[in-house]
Amino acid sequence: MKKLLAGLAIAGTLFSNAYAQTDKPTIVLVHGAFADASSWNGVIDILENDGYPVVAVANPLRGVRNDAEYVADILSSIESPIVLVGHSYGGSVISEAASDNAKVKALVYVSAFAPEAGETAAGLAGKFPGSTLGPAIAPPVSLSGGGKDLYIRQDKFHDQFAADVSDTEAKLMAATQRPITEAALNEARTGAAWKNIPSWFIYGDEDKNIPPQALAFMAHRAHARETVVVKGASHVVMVSDPAPVAKMIENAAVGE
To answer: Could you say which residues of the chain have pLDDT below 50?
Structure first.
């Protein structure tokens, strides 16, 4: 056991040193509901090739406060400046996790919620017409500890969530999707870090989960430094179009 703990300590030191070897900020990526950290793979390839250290967080998807605390713990372990990126529900998480964290220099919202304090993801998604997520949700899974987990029906996943990726990739994404608790989508936010931290927004004009009109509203409200709308892109623009997403993250990293 002592050897194992010693090995973990050394690994932790090496992990910290790896980020100390560059003057570029660390990019922290937070996925949203019905996805996992691998949804950032294409973006990570570009960022790392351009010399950026990257951490793709495994977002628990249990509740905004719970998930934000988890992400905040990861942020506290990083010594460099941070660009914090959220997809979908992950935008709600980063909006809370970045509050009062001086190391977070920029927020990037990728097809993501940027809620005001007191708002919910479900409420924002329904603020404007266009979301077809509701009918695509499978019967909720009751949890033994209380509450319910939500999944997108696998036969609806491709069209609803990732219409612009290949059939093969969409099937894999559907089978490996991470559930979110019903309560998380209805939990009001207490933090709105975008009020104090510069923000960037990118989303697709064919998003069926969050209406593009809602995303435009949130970007305008946050006084985004840059807003990019990717023509024909679905809710998972970072999967189908990683290049413009990576470009925006790098713009945020240098403050452009």
So the answer is: 3-19
